[in-house]
From TrEMBL:
This is histidine kinase. GO terms for biological process: cellular response to phosphate starvation. It is found in: Membrane. It catalyses: ATP + protein L-histidine = ADP + protein N-phospho-L-histidine. Residues 1-33 form the HAMP domain. One of its GO terms (cellular component) is plasma membrane. Its EC number is 2.7.13.3. It comes from the Bacteria. The keyword Nucleotidyltransferase does not apply. Keywords: Kinase, Membrane, Phosphoprotein, Transferase, Transmembrane, Transmembrane helix, Two-component regulatory system. Residues 41-255 form the Histidine kinase domain. The chain holds residues 203 to 457 of 457 of the full protein. Signal peptide: none annotated.
Amino acid sequence: YECVKNIKADTKEIYELAISIEELARQLSEQEQLRKRLSNDISHELRSPLAVLRSQIEALIDGVLEPTEERLARLNDEIVRMTKLINDLNELVTIESEHLQLKIMKINLAEELSTSIDGFIPLMESKGIQLIHESESEIYINGDKDRLKQIFVNLLTNAYKYTNEGGIIKVILTKNEDEAIIRFIDTGIGIKKGDLSYVFQRFYRGDESRSRKTGGAGIGLSIVKELVKAHDGIITVDSEIGKGSIFTIKFKLSQ
Ligand code: ADP
C-alpha cells in the first residue's frame, strides 16, 4: 500500500483506502503487542504458584512431607487462588480486547450504589468498619447495570481489604453541570505517592498489599479502569500513606 499511496491517481478513494489499510495495520500491530505482553504476564503470574504446588505435591508423593490436613488445605487454597486468577485474567482479556458488549440503559446511580453497598454491610460490620453512603438523588447516567456493579464491588472490596479494623469507608455521589461524581473514600493504609500512577496497571500491587493475606493479584483496578473507560468515564486516585485513599469516578450525565 506504500506504492498505492504514492500514485497521484485521480482516484481519491484509492488514497483513502490506503490510509485506512495503514490505520488497520497499525491497530493490528498494537493489538498483537498487547496480546504478547498479556501472555507473557500470564505465564509469569502462573509459573511461580504452579512451581510451588508441583514441588509440594512431589514431596508428598515421595513421602518427604506428611499429607496433613493443614498442608492439603493450603494446597487447595493455592488452587482456588489460581482459579480465581485465571477467571480474572479471562475477564480482563475480554474487556481489553473490546469484546465487551455493554447493555446500556438509563441508570439511577444512587439506587445502583445502594444495591452494591448493602451487600457489604455484614462484611464491614464483622471488621468494625463504619460504612457511610451519601447520595444525591436523581442522578442518571447511561450505563450497563452489571458492569457498574462490578466497578463498585471492586472498589468496595479494595476499601475493605486495605482498611484496618475500626476504620471508616464513605461512598459519596454528587453531580456538577454535566457529570456524576462518585467518591470512594477510606481511612485505610493509603498508597505511596510514587505508586499512585501504577495502581491501575495490571498485576501491580503495593508492597504493603503483597505482604497482606488478601489474596489479590493486582488485576481488580485494571478491570475497573477498563470498565470505567468503556462507559466514557474517568477514574482517578488520591491517597496519603497511613491516612487513606480516595478513588473518584466521573461519568457523563444522561440527558
Ligand atoms: P489487588 O487488590 O488484588 O492487589 P488491585 O488491582 O485491586 O489489586 O489494586 C492494586 C494495588 O493498589 C493493590 O495491591 C494496593 O497496593 C493498591 N490499592 C488499591 N486500592 C487500595 C485502597 N483502597 N487502599 C490502599 N491501597 C489500595
